[in-house]
User: Fold this.
Amino acid sequence: MHIEEPTRPTPDHAPSCPLAIDDLTVAYRRKPVLWDVDIDIPEGKLVGIVGPNGAGKSTLIKACLGLVPQTSGRILIYGKPYAQQRKYVGYVPQRESVDWDFPVSALDVVTMGLYGGIGWFKPVRSKHTEQAMHALEQVGIPDLAHRQISQLSGGQQQRVFLARALAQQARLYFMDEPFAAVDAATERAIVNLLHELKDQGKTCLVFHPDLSTVRDYFDWLILLNMRVVAAGPTSDIYTMENLQRTYGGRLLLLDEAAHALGGAPR
Amino acid sequence: MIPWDTMLEVLTLQQYNTRLVVLSTALLGLASGILGGFLLMRKRSLLGDSLSHATLPGIALAFMLMVLMGGTGKFLPGLLMGAMLTGLAGVGLVLLIRNTTRIKDDAAMGIVLSVFFGAGIVLLGIAQDMPGAGAAGLEQFIYGRTASMVLSDFFVIAGVTIASALATCFLFKEFSILCFDEDFARAQGWPVHRLDMIMLALVAAVTVTGLQAVGLILIIAFLITPAAAARFWTDQLKYMLWIASCLGAISGWFGSSISALLPGWPAGAVIVLTATFIFLFSMIFGSARGVLPRYLQHIRLKKRTNPGKRASTCKFPGGFSVFAKHADVVQKHTRSTNSPGTTGRSH
Assistant:
């Protein structure tokens, strides 16, 4: 498979830049998963990350959060390494990453978003519970606060994860497939929430595999297939040529892409 | 039949020895209930088993070392120190195998568990052949022997219990986020490995102090069974740990009392059987997820949503999954027998 030289944005590491990635390479057992990733995300944008399966989307987010060791490169969040900027970053993992049979209520899970701020040895106080409750209101399920989490539907579980990230009161959010297998109501609720966050000047990086809705949801795009194929405003980036370069010879996906693209400029 | 006055004497802890053993095992049950709860939630139950089996070579080695240094070899703190060291080495080896090779958790634990236990048996044999040293009695650590417990054991167990309870009070928030969502905990900056190590060190401490009471083979049941039973009564981790520690203490208390009443019934085994009985009872009657309450709930739901219809034809929105599956199978079956040319078995 031939991948052309990616179109790179010019590096700019102003402290106002929510996420600046320089030459990032990540390898698992010597097999590279991400190559030479160079991205600068502007503030206050809804950024969609698109690419085929195995393109390293989840790895990119985990590298940004220090969950996987990076082979080389540098990741700066508002001008500093992640370890110093944790309080500015919210994280919505994939829903399948946890055991929903765990004996906690929805409110307990949301409160976990505040644990980092509460600090060592200190108990959860009622003001924290109120904050968590407020986050549940923002995602529209305050009435389910005391339900055990296995009794929630997939969409409701996803909202709980979103509420947990909201409770973190971050400026930059990483969301790993928040739209995966959720009902239409939840999808709308998430989209509304994303716009609310954007209106507050926050930046969201959303890993989103569904090409048909990419153009409606995001105003900035990163096309990823082990390397950054293209990154920039959706209107510039979302072209047939770029999608072809991202998805390579995967014809089925290309058909889907062509279908989704409709009358987009070539 | 046991005379009433004997029974009363044991149950009211009149004798010094009974009192010591019963209170020690009850305290041990308290601690193992709490830590077993975390172990279960962290999905590390078998790691506890590897740990306990890996204590055996440590006991034998500590004995040999102490004999070579001119001691009696039966110095208990020394033996337990050895047990602790190889137990933790076993856990370390499991984690090392898992992290550096492609061998999965369960295989790594199986390997470590049997290799360490095998090595322990061999070393025990060698220790027994050592000239001038009576190693007889060392094998009591395999199955446990409460009769050999002394007052200092009680204090050690009490210390471990207090340490476990304090750690749980102060680190409840940290342990629960670690058990629920490790990646999220790490992203928030919690030192996941160090928390895991604290948890495992406490489990190791409980295991080692429990060696005399229940033995290294059965200690895992003492850790896991009360916690698993508690899960049937509540959907809240906090209450689950309280219930688990109570059930553990009850198992220890009654198990060792029964064993004191019936000569020839080893305490360790009776304690584990008591815990298992409590587990079975919880599994059936547990208010949060017991089989019976869920079945009744399912019946009520069925009556409400679909009055007058048979179970096989009604579709229900939730309820008990086993019955849901069953209904599904019945549905399939009726569908396939209705259609010509197929048999119900073909699905």
Summary: The longest strand of chain A covers residues 31-41. Chain A touches chain B through 30 residues (CB under 8 Å). Residues 19-261 of chain A form a domain with the Rossmann fold fold (CATH 3.40.50.300).
